[in-house]
């Protein structure tokens, strides 16, 4: 909740905390871990097509950094197409909305975002539903990730070591 409150204080037009940040907390809870596992980062996704500079992301990230125990990764999803090819090796079309962005994240279980609305209530973005998240299934989302990238992710994320009840779909 402290991360959600910190993100809400930025007063961004459309945002969520998502991907591994949500997946890890849910899978830790479903495994009955006494404390959440350490997050490599907190993913704050937002959408504003009027300013897609990485400098704005960096400025927002700097504002958030001292407020929570994990490093933040702040990304304006409206600008992903600008840098994606140089980072991942293939071009992508511009995203049209935050929901469009969340729908393209690498696995269906990570294609989930959470935000606080103006009343302080949780709002969920889950374009592929919540079944894979709560059933602890790792399944490739072909919208953005090819099979080779998916396999590398499965290996580097060490899903089965961290959460032994997870089921990984090979491809």
The biggest beta sheet is recorded as: 5 strands, mixed
What is the CATH architecture term? 2-Layer Sandwich
Task: Write down the overall mean pLDDT.
Answer: 92
CATH class: Alpha Beta
Measured between the Cα atoms of the first and last residue, the distance is 34 Å
> What's the gyration radius in Å?
16 Å
Which regions are unreliable across 5 or more consecutive residues at pLDDT < 50? none
What order do the SSEs take from the amino end to the carboxyl end, as H and E?
HEHEHEHHEEHEHHE
Portion of residues within helices: 25-40%
Number of domains: 1
Structural class: alpha/beta
For the largest sheet, list the strands in their spatial order: 3-2-1-4-5
Tally of helical segments: 8
**What's the CATH topology label?**
Beta Polymerase, domain 2
Proportion in β-strands: 15-25%
The CATH fourth-level homologous superfamily = Beta Polymerase, domain 2
What is the count of β-strands?
Answer: 7
Shape field = globular
Structure commentary:
This protein has eight helices and seven strands. With 171 residues, it is an alpha/beta fold. The chain has one domain (2-166): Beta Polymerase, domain 2. It has a five-stranded mixed sheet. Strands 6-7 form a two-stranded parallel sheet. β4 (113-116) and β5 (122-125) form a beta hairpin. The mean pLDDT is 92.
Quick rundown:
The protein has 171 residues and is an alpha/beta fold. It is built from 8 helices and 7 strands; from the N terminus they run αβαβαβααββαβααβ.
Show the helix and strand layout.
Blueprint: H1 2-8, E1 15-18, H2 20-30, E2 42-46, H3 54-64, E3 72-76, H4 80-88, H5 98-102, E4 113-116, E5 122-125, H6 131-135, E6 137-138, H7 147-157, H8 159-162, E7 167-168
Parallel strand pairs: 2-3, 6-7
Antiparallel strand pairs: 1-2, 1-4, 4-5
């Amino acid at each position: 909740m402290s991360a959600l409150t910190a993100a809400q204080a930025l007063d961004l037009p459309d945002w969520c905390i998502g991907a591994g940040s949500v997946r890890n907390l849910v899978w830790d809870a479903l495994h009955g871990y006494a404390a959440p596992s350490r997050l490599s980062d907190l993913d704050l996704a937002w959408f504003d097509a009027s300013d897609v500079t990485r400098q704005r992301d960096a400025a927002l990230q700097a504002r958030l950094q001292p407020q929570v125990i994990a490093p933040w990764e702040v990304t304006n999803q409206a600008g992903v197409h600008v840098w994606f090819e140089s980072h991942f090796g293939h071009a992508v079309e511009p995203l049209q909305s935050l929901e469009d962005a969340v729908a393209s994240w690498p696995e269906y279980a990570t294609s989930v975002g959470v935000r606080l609305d103006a009343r302080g209530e949780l709002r969920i973005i889950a374009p592929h539903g919540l079944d894979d998240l709560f059933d602890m299934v790792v399944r490739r989302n072909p919208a953005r990730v090819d099979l080779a990238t998916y396999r590398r992710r499965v290996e580097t994320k060490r899903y089965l070591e961290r959460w032994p009840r997870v089921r990984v779909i090979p491809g």
